[in-house]
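Appendix B. Extra example for self-study. Work through it before the problem class; the solution is given directly after the inputs so you can check yourself.
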Amino acid sequence: MQLLSILVQRIGYAVALLIAVIIFNFILLSLVPGDIAETLAGEAGGASPEVMEQIRKSYGLDQPFYVQLFNYVTRVLQGDLGTSYYFNVPVTELILERVGPTLLLVTTALLIAIVVGTLLGVIAAQNPNGWFSHLVTILALVGFSAPVFWTAFMLIVLFVSILGILPLTGMVNPTTESGTLKWYLEVAHHLVLPSLSLASVYVAQYSRLARASMMDILGSDYIRTARAKGLSQRKVIYKHGLRNAVIPVITIAGLQFSYIFSGAVVIETVFNWPGLGTLALDAILRSDTPTIMGILFFSALVVIVFNLLTDMACRIADPRIRSSRNA
Amino acid sequence: MADTSSDERTITGDVKVTIEHPFTEFLRMYFKNIAAVLAFICFTVIVLVAILGPLLTDLDPFRIVWMPIAPPGQDGFLLGTDSLGRSIAVQILYGARASLAVGAAAAAITLVIGLLVGSLAGYYRGWVDEALMRVTEFFQVLPPLLLSMVLVGLFSPTLQTVVFAIGVVSWTGVARLARAEFMKIRELEYVKAARSIGSKDARIIWRVILPNALPPLIVTAALTVGAAILFEAALSFLGLSDPNIVSWGKIIGDNRDYFLEAPWTVIFPGLAIFVTVLCINLIGDGLNDAFNPKLRER
Amino acid sequence: MNTVPTAPLLEVDNLQVEFKTRRGIARVLDGISLSLSAGETLGIVGESGCGKSMTALSIMGLVPQPPGRIAGGEIKLSGEELLGATERRMRQIRGNEISMIFQEPMTSLNPVYTVGDQIAETVIEHEGLSSHEAMNRATEMLRAVKIPAPEQRVRECPHQLSGGMRQRVMIAMALACRPQVLIADEPTTALDVTVQAQVFDLLKDLQEISKTTIILITHDMGAIAEMADRVAVMYAGRIIETGSVQDILRDPQHPYTQGLISCVPHLVRDPPAERPVLLEIPGVVPPLTDLGQGCAFEPRCARSQARCRTEKPKSRETTSDHLCACWAVEEEASA
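Solution. Structure tokens for the complete assembly:
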């Protein structure tokens, strides 16, 4: 139907964006002082001009700019992101190994943020001058103003140092067999702190947003209609109010996904979470350019796919924009 | 019922209507907000400390002064020492400069790019808007922190690179806001009037529309500074900043491996960041409320 | 018309409602008394802010408290006191025994649910129907309010319907549980003139079938002439005149009512030559926080006397079943 044709159009646009990211990556690479040949030769402990020429040729660096660009784009689109200088394995392989943990962390944090944030906001809106509402406002300000890695450390103080109920770092005990129930439980146990830390910022933002929009909604005509029907306060709020209040939250979550992903990079390094973030930091500190570029490309891909999903979610939740061309 | 105020003046007639200058009204509204006033005072103190800080101590932040990870309060080291035996208090004092300066400079770049892109897109609409919004969407797809990490990593970890790397990845929100404001204001009568008397586009954009779009932009500017400080903290925490300059994030990054033994090495610099950004956000809220007095009464 | 004396279905007696505002306590309703028998249509007219909608919300038990407060009076439905009723009981009554349609059909429907869901919801709530049965009822109701292709419309969302259609949906929703009383608060104000007539015709047709009692709140004298059996005229939180529609339109007593009616040209059935000059009532409704001792209309009244400034006029019968609260009228009658 209509939704499908919009989906097709969105996918087309997403592919165009992706190609733009690849071109951007290539331009970024060519702006970096020095070239791949020098870096490789440097790794090998220096090389003669002939060898350098040989390397340049094998990487196609002697060809004109646009040919190099074309070759680069084609290679990336085929899934070939080159070989890591440092790990010496194909970058695609490295990334695919790490993308699961990152997605797990990001989606868990996002779900916590959307659910908890919306609920806090909706409850606060019902009595905008009550103590709970003030508490939510203060929590929002705090969550908003604290550096995410610092929040993480503070949660560690609480849950690891003082209470001792949560593990400090890592994702799973390496000796645990993957796929077993024990493995899942261990992962879940390790996931609590990182996802809470990451979610804290967004719980703050979304509760503020949901509170404001729910206050508008509670004064709206359709809420009065719902009351006039004889519905209970619960139904009025959680059936007629909540769904309308969650739409702006999902919209913002979609727009901000790249920020949440950024936050995950920091959180991963704090908790030694084996995801793309720790890989990215390792790669940057070791000047492993192919890996860096690969991660940048892949993150953009994840963001694009996620934007597509939230766009569709909003269209399903809100019939008014279901068939509109722009999100 | 509650909104009879304007009517009442016309009926009774003898009510004196004093018209307040917008700026005095703004100040009055701002000073009614106690949190915002306290935040403003607190922030002023922080800025003064950042400027004068190095005059307050004769210690070098990089000098090893005592045994490593000494807890706070011992032997006159107010906030203890770090993993190398350097004074945390002195480092925080010096770090204020880098954190605030980088935050302010990066926010300035963010605002300039965002304002430029947003105003042109919102004013000209059509293909200019289309093209600029595509660029904006492109930048929204790249995770900002990751991109600035890559930029700092690929080039050199200097103060300038960090400032540039933050500014160039964070302008999209400002651009969207400025675009929306410009699109709204360009349809208003006084802009049409300016156009009809043949004012040049540049004049209309900067002299007619911009002053009217300022309130939300000023609020955003304040929040942008806060965000930029957090951004810088994250980069230097990750070790992607000038190794020769102390900043709050860097203190935490340097000591993270000793965090469990010496939590003060992380808590205090983090508190400095937190309090600073909190003040800025409270000031932003205060500005917002003062600019929109009607919203506050709800 | 419907003057057969039966026990009243809905009775409002001396209702007082106050609102706390920044400028003090506003007495929004000051001693409202109404009485409706089954199948009757009562029109309530008055300017914006005179308390028409607040009367309706009080009957529904939907006065926002705080800032509002019911300060006194009684509201009885078939003898049952509603003001002290539990919230649970009020929920059973709302939408089931008394329902209401609102002024703004564009915003009174929830944008994210289909109209069928929203009609069915009422039936499920009050009659415990299964969702399938309720949807069938919703389709039936859409057909009853003369929406074409109801099987299809029932699955559409409000934004896909025109304003007139949405108001029909609101009517369908309000009548879905066959309520005894329907309160229509300016149901046509937001609609085009041609659509307005259609909505009134529809309401009349439906009333004939279901014998529903209707309270029509409006500031439109034309609507009153078309729909109402009896009329109550409100000013600043009080009912200042009440009577049969013929009495009020042909022989208005209160200066305010006279002003209201002379504001509307086509109602006066005199030949054009004798038609009086269109009048305008000078001034606006006073603030409710500051009503003073006397008659609230006094500052705007052409027949104002000394007594009007110091003492509130009481409702007196002028002719049978025609009440008016005005010192000038009373004096004239006794003179």
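Self-check: Residues 227 and 273 of chain B are 11 Å apart (CA to CA). If your reasoning did not lead you there, revisit section 3.
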